[in-house]
Specification:
Helix 4 packs parallel to helix 5, helix 6 packs across helix 10 and helix 8 crosses helix 10. The protein folds into two domains: about 200 residues, NAD(P)-binding Rossmann-like Domain (Rossmann fold); about 110 residues, UDP-galactose 4-epimerase, domain 1, CATH 3.90.25.10. It is globular. The protein has a seven-stranded parallel beta sheet with strand order 3-2-1-4-5-6-11, with helices on both faces. It has about 325 residues and is an alpha/beta fold. About 45% of the residues are buried.
Amino acid sequence: MIFIIGGAGYIGSHVNKFLSNEGYDTLILDNLSKGHEELVKWGKFIKGGLGDKKLLNRIFEKYDISAVMHFAALTDVRESLEDPGAYYNNNVKNTLNLLDAMIKNNVKNFIFSSTCAVYGNPLKIPITEDHPCKPISPYGRSKLMVEEILKDYSNSYDFNYVSLRYFNAAGADPEAEIGEWHEPETHLIPIVLDVAVGKRENVEIFGTDYPTPDGTCIRDYIHVMDLADAHWRALEFLEEDKSEVFNLGNGDGFSVKEVIKTCSEITGKEIATIETERRLGDPPRLIGSSKKARKILGWTPNFTELKDIIQTAWKWHQKLNKKFIQP
């Protein structure tokens, strides 16, 4: 059985679907502070959080868990700058509770949902896993702290891990059974699609004076089902009793203005924009190299075109926001 922490959230729910389709039994733990129980359509669901050490031990004692996947993190860079304590408590302290329960109950395989934010401002593009890690936000630092903890646990205990450093997760289940659903929404593509369905009036563009071709930030968008595929391959990798860190990205970048333009083309809607100041903690360009994951995990993204990623997001977004769409 695979224990998925945060499996009612965006990425966790897609990984749950992927693993269930591959024949795995899954157990989902989520406190529903950010996730939605409606997205847990596979496996067994338990409502609870990692702050409850007694619950964690009861779960590990009751279920035959072979591996743990951890998605339950706070992820908003701007929020982490305003309230770093919440990020260190949730992302670091609660992860320690989980790891200690695993060690106590002899569960040794762990997959960690990390982030390209551990790198900070890139010194070179594309970013490889050996790039210096100098995060510029408490969010990025909290993820890097956990990665350092994982190294120590792997060195000292019978414990193996894979840390997956995502670039920008995007898109939705192509069958639109599940998809991206944040309240409030902070990710660019669903925000733009909110304008397309009439849920909001405009999109803010934070900074138009970056050293990029059109002046807006460039990001590497990776489809959520491609991320799910990588988690499945990471499970197989852990069977070799090894630990490793992998980037997960497309290797191509798209600017904020390119994303807005593509969303407009796919939805047939004009997207109103407001240009405003840069946000703290936003590097101009983040593009990752996934050569290592391709070589070692045998992973290849299926959704490599921005329009294909956005089309899946739009299909889900219309389903989620029916009440906002004008007939």
